[in-house]
Amino acid sequence: MDHSYNALKAACKFRAFVYNRCDYNQSTALVEKQRYINFLNGGEDYTSEWYGAIFQNPNTADLYPHALHFSQELHKRTDRQETAIKELTKQAEELVKRLDTIVAMNETNDAVAKELQQENMLMRHRWYRILQKTEMLRRRGIPLGEEELLAQRAQHLREHLLAPCRFTSALSDVEPRIAERAAQVAQYLARREERESFASEVTPALTQEWERTLCDNQVAIERLSKIVVKDTADVRAMLDRA
């Protein structure tokens, strides 16, 4: 009986070994699995052919030999490989598109970086020139714009503080009332000296007048104190701004 077409027989002439990808170091286990399946289906053991396929394996860690029978299985294997190739090609095209996008972004970033570097260099040159001019002006004793402005503000504050009539306007409002109350007190003291007894001259009306005079003097003094405090605060604020 001719067993040339029987895949389970060792005499089959339409059998070849191909290599499939597998997990790391799983080649031996997959070979034993195929031989066991062949044994369960009543096939003969063609150990020498398996050993030859194992010996010719180009990558024993990631590939394992697989017995392929007849053109139908070869055609199926080819179809699966074409499908896998299409998927890999699609993934490769997507990666190429992403790579093109990354390259374009990288080129844009490089251009922006070059512009920023040029601007930075220009700013440094300008800054060095400003420093050189500033140092030259200082060596020649010429005041800078900002220093001159500060000097003008300081001079204005000095003139404002040293003005002879700085507080005269505030005092002029209080002095008449103080003078009036001082005259009343002087009159009272003069009358008291003419009397023999101070106690007999102190009347309720005079006491009220005296209290009113003291209250008015206190109000005038407090008003003058507020004016002085306000002017002092204004001067400090001007000094802080300067």
UniProtKB/TrEMBL annotation:
Keyword Transport: yes
Compartments in which it is found: Nucleus
Any one Gene Ontology cellular component term annotated for this protein: nuclear pore central transport channel
Name the UniProt record assigns to this protein: Nucleoporin (NUP54/57)
InterPro entries in UniProt: Nup54/Nup57/Nup44, Nup54_alpha-helical_dom
GO molecular function: structural constituent of nuclear pore
Lineage: superkingdom: Eukaryota
Coiled-coil features, chain-numbered ranges: 71-105
Major localisation: nucleus
GO process annotations (BP): NLS-bearing protein import into nucleus; nuclear pore organization; protein localization to nuclear inner membrane
Species of origin: Strigomonas culicis
Keyword Cytoplasm: no
Keywords for the protein's UniProt record, in alphabetical order: Coiled coil, Nucleus, Transport
Annotated Nucleoporin Nup54 alpha-helical domain residues: 48-174
Xref: Pfam families: Nup54
